[in-house]
C-alpha cells in the first residue's frame, strides 16, 4: 500500500509540476482615442489712421483729420496713448498733434488698441 500511495503522490506531483512552473504572461493593450474640440481661428487685422488731432475727450473719443476728412474713434478702457518709444503719455492730447490711431474691426465698430503720438511739440 505504501508503494501505491507513493506512486499516486509521485503521479500527482508529476501532473501538477508543469502547471506550477509554467510561466504565464498577460499582455493588455488599451487604445485610447481623444477627441479634440474643434478650434476656430479668428484673424484680427490691425489698421491705423494718422493725421492731426482735431478733437480729443480723454477716455471717450478722438477725432483725427485723415486724408478723406475727419475720422472719429471711441476710446475704450483698453486703449493706450503712447509715444513712439512705447512709453505711456499722461498729458492730454492737443488739437494739431500728429497721431497714429491703431484699431481693429469694421468702420461701424472700430476698437482702438493704441494711439501713438508722432509729434510731441
Flag low-confidence runs: 23-28
* CA(first)-CA(last) distance: 123 Å
> Quick one: CATH superfamily of the domain at 46-117?
Copper binding periplasmic protein CusF
Second rung of CATH, namely the architecture of the domain at 46-117: Beta Barrel
Helix amount: 10-25%
Strand content: 25-35%
Summarize the structure.
This protein is 17% helix and 35% strand. With 121 residues, it is α+β, with helices and mostly antiparallel strands. The protein has a domain at 46-117: Copper binding periplasmic protein CusF (OB fold (Dihydrolipoamide Acetyltransferase, E2P), Beta Barrel), CATH 2.40.50.
Task: Give a written overview of the molecule.
- With 121 residues, the chain is of the alpha+beta class.
- The chain has a domain of 72 residues: OB fold (Dihydrolipoamide Acetyltransferase, E2P) (Beta Barrel).
- It is built from one helix and six strands.
- A hairpin with a 2-residue loop joins strand 2 and strand 3.
- The chain is rod-shaped.
- About 5% of the residues have low confidence.
Q: What are the key terms here?
A:
6-stranded mixed beta sheet; about 15% helix; about 120 residues; about 35% strand; OB fold (Dihydrolipoamide Acetyltransferase, E2P)
